[in-house]
What we know:
The protein is 39% helix and 13% strand. The protein has helices at 21-24, 26-30, 49-61, 71-85, 100-111, 127-134, 151-160, 182-194, 223-228, 254-266, 274-286, 288-311, 337-344, 356-366, and strands at residues 36-37, 94-97, 117-120, 138-141, 164-170, 198-202, 229-233, 247-250, 322-324, 331-335, 369-370, 372-373, 384-388. α6 (127-134) links the parallel β3 and β4. The longest helix is centred in the C-terminal third of the chain and has 24 residues, at 288-311. It is globular and about 60 Å long. Pyridoxal-5'-phosphate (PLP) is lined by residues 41, 99-102, 125, 170, 174, 202, 204, 234, 236, 242, 247.
Amino acid sequence: MTTPMHFDFDEIIDRRNTHAYKYDALQKVFGRDDITPLWVADMEFRSPQCITDELQKVLSQGVYGYSSEPAELFDAIHDWILQEHGWDVKRDWYTFVGGIVRGIAYAVQFFTKPGDKIVVQSPVYHPFTLVPEGNGRSVLRNPLKGRDMDFENLEKLLTENAPVTMLILCNPHNPGGYAWSRETLQKLAALCAAHNVIVISDEIHCDLYLWGGKHIPFATVSEEAAMCSITFGAPSKTFNIPGLASSYCLIPNAKIREPFYRWLGANEFNDPGIMSSLGAIAAFRHGRQWRDAAVSYIEQNILYIESKCAEFVDKDSLPYIVPMRPDASYLVWLDCRRLLAHLAGKRVEELAMEDQLLLEDYFVNRLGLALNSGVMFGAEGLGFMRLNVACPRKLLGFDFML
Ligand SMILES: Cc1ncc(COP(=O)(O)O)c(C=O)c1O
């Protein structure tokens, strides 16, 4: 029996003046830089030592020439996905991409034309909207119904706006960390396949399931799903290495895959740098214990925040903030609508977009915290804030107050 390794997630690491976006952008985005950054989705934890050890070998040699992609990279990805999610992905389906947003952008550019329509299910990770719109495509929103997809509205959108070329799925969903059931994903696949819609499944958070939950890769739920989908995944969120820009793309359908991969290759959009390859291999081969420990620590942080929210109540003992418990990952979607109504002197039903400023001001200037404002994920985020709890518990030591 091996002794469990100890990982110090309580360690406070000073990331100021290290070109960390989460810190560098505080002044520009929040107007102050003396606040605690609980926004951008990276962790305040040191990445697993096995990754640093591997990168250190390159630094020690001190030669940073052109590299070739190690065959071991696919093998490490394959074995991880098989063991974690029971999905036996084939070598042909795979290519490297240097970041998931970039991968989505390549797919948008390759499979759609300016003016084409792309569906997103909001509130959702904002680049799902920014990338298509920035490339002259138009975005159709199918707002979520709480923790569910609105299939009635989706069918209507796809029918009334035909042809719709693409749908970008967040599996599991950000913000909220919602896991989709097999039935939901099967229904989505059937509907998209019937309307000839390519589904991009962004599964970047798939290796951070909480509370013993299991991820279901979209492409595995049915033959239709396999045939209409492009899946993106990465070790970046799981092992806190987004700065290494290492991701992968999986496409079972040769008709979609072959021309796309030819185009990626011709443009050298799928060449990994040496650090991207070695970091990913080390993570997938040797990072499991670290990941398991990080997940446990994150679960405790979520429970800690839930207990704080439960104590922050009005005179009728109703909570001002209700945290949506995530099924996966470390981004807690806080329903602050009752708090915002209180701050605005309105009823919840009367809240308007401009009121969100009061909520943003409350977190920054009253609590000294930088969170993502809910409206950056779509208008449905009015009255919500997104809190990143992948940090030493000490950084969550604030108290909600009025
Ligand atoms: C759903 C989702 N996709 C993609 C990304 C970013 O991925 P990358 O840094 O590989 O572009 C994030 C980061 O927060 C995310 O939440």
